[in-house]
Amino acid sequence: MVLDIEMLRDFYASYSGEVANARKVLGRSLTYAEKVLYAHVYDKSGLRPYKRLDDYVDFRPNRVAMQDATAQMALLQFMNAGKDRVAVPATVHCDHLIRADVGVEKDLPEARKTNKEVYDFLQSVSRKYHIGFWAPGAGIIHQVVLENYAFPGGMMIGTDSHTPNAGGLGMVAIGVGGADAVDVLTGQPWELKMPRIIGVHLTGKLNGWASPKDVILYILGLLTVKGGTNAILEYYGEGVATLSATGRATICNMGAELGATCSIFPFDGNTEDYLRETGRDEVADMAVGVASDLVADADVYDHPDKYYDQIVEIDLGSIEPHLNGPFTPDAATPLSEMKTKGPREDYPMTVEVGLIGSCTNSSYEDLAKAASVARQAKAKGLKAKAQLIINPGSEQIYFTARRDGLIDDLQAIGGVIMTNACGPCIGQWHRHTDDNNRKNAIVTSFNRNFRRRADGNPNTFAFIGSPELTVALAIAGRLDFNPATDTLVNEEGVEVRLDEPSGDVFPPKGFAVDDKGFIPPTDDGRDTEVVISPTSQRLQRLEPFPAWDGHDYTDMPLLIKTQGKCTTDHISMAGPWLRFRGHLENISDNLLMGAVNAFNGESNKVLDRLDNEYKAVSSAAKDYKSHGINSIVVAEDNYGEGSSREHAAMEPRFLNVKVVLAKSFARIHETNLKKQGVLALTFVDKADYDKVREDDSISVTGLADFAPGRPLTVVLRHADGTEESFKAAHTYNSTQIEWFKAGSALNYAKEHMK
């Protein structure tokens, strides 16, 4: 059954006409990303050529996807919007709260028990507001979306930063915070600054142990975690046809690590095949009918320099297997260099755990290639020296892989099958180890490897590779093992070499599943009661944030001046804190606990100006709030890199942080701050960061004249009585300034809807 078929029929019936109109308005050929963007402009009557990186544009996405950790806060906000049902098709996916411990047989029942209150809330709120519900164990949000909802030419937003996974099927799919999701769920325009477009020209064909994962790992080394900010990566060239749809999804998924708005591949036979293999023949037929508009226009390919803001040339044949890490996904190392780089950088060279899965690499093709390595290892008398953990992407993937013997192959060398869920990728991992502070190395097929992310150990060196390479390194037990050139000694003392991995893109017998774990939207859920206990420690109804009082922010104490990388993991940790994602007051206790204080080099230890004692960041913030005092956070570049979690914006807002002043912001986090009424400012001169002292009283002036393009003034009153001032820039447009004045975007929207 094709889900949301009427929406899809309506979309494809009008899509080519929308593209033709956009081409006429712009008076030129269009890239594929432009076609999708312009086809989804909210108000077509005012359609005009929008300037990239300058104009804010209102869009009308086709659907919304939410994972259980972020859905809680998104739906708590939606409940305050006064609507009877969602305005577009939407789904909730229970994938983040399941802890990987001993295996699926025990872990899934334990998760259902432990998280029952949250699951019951999400299921009831889904029933009430006409939202599809994917139960615990059904699978990881982005794999489930790819199998059931993603469609060429569409636009989707999701409350998870890896929503761009669907770009593998030709969608503009963008990760957002819950407040953005509420805009779309209520039928309001969804705003995005028109992104620049980076053309990625692929030629040649992957060979040997190289995989689609290595393509994006290579690009990360090339562009870094900031290189895609406010950009869409559009892939084109003859090399595209050599990549499967799921391989493309892997590449788009990790485009989030570049800071990219999203990534997108054009429609072709591989896309069509995936739609048909996953039971969506009618969608495939409709896409084929408009195929010429599901790719860039011919002139774009003939003269790419005229249409793309930047062009990246990649010969797939030159790509070799990579291990990216540790601690950041753009630390790219070709595997052939690890023998010299590892000892030079003092990496722990013994691989203790290999982990396969996550939304990035959990397709049938991924498991088939990983299983091919395991199968031949067993045949050649090899056993895994490292622990091997597998999280399949969906119940459909798991059921099919088990039927086809792939699961048996992985278990035969010691693999442990965990639930179809995110698990260790987002810190939901009870790692069994002798010392969780010991320096060690793990290899994953995940997308992020920030310090402490997987297991909470700051000394775990996490490296990212493909699933097949992860299995090979788990077998070898060494970071510097290169399966293309090195041999291993088997149980009989014989040197053997692993053959190149191979695996079917699609299961030869087709996909199969007994129960996908899906509960479709109800026709009328108005009588459904959404119950939240007033004494719950996991769920808490939201109170609107107060509106701006009309005055400048004066004499604010510095809550923390962060040093170096400060991701959303540092601002609002996941792992054990995931259980509080629906309770703003409780989760605020983790505020910035992972950030490094620039004045003492320590985490979660800041000066409380009221008593001159050092304490946890949240404790200092609570002290200021209890005395009616506003505070400010100062940070370095790319502040808020990583997840889309809006808790990283809502927590400081809840604890009276009025301003975040950074050298630069990651796109999603900057938007989240704006949505929640926190003033997001950047240093005009980044050197001014060094002027901020630990015991400063800081003011932000000029708010009475707050206007687009007009900088504000920051005044530092030092403890010695001296003062310094400098300009701070912002990217607020007129509507976003109204959000600020109203106290939040939701406050503004509710008033606007009245």
Automatic annotation (TrEMBL):
GO molecular function, one term: metal ion binding
Keyword line: Iron, Iron-sulfur, Lyase, Metal-binding, Transit peptide, Tricarboxylic acid cycle
Top-rank taxon: Bacteria
Domain Aconitase A/isopropylmalate dehydratase small subunit swivel: 556-684
Protein's organism: Prevotella lacticifex
Enzyme Commission number(s) of this protein: 4.2.1.3
Similarity comment text for this entry: Belongs to the aconitase/IPM isomerase family.
Name this protein carries in UniProt: Aconitate hydratase A
Region annotation (Disordered) ranges: 325-344
Pathway membership, UniProt: Carbohydrate metabolism; tricarboxylic acid cycle; isocitrate from oxaloacetate: step 2/2
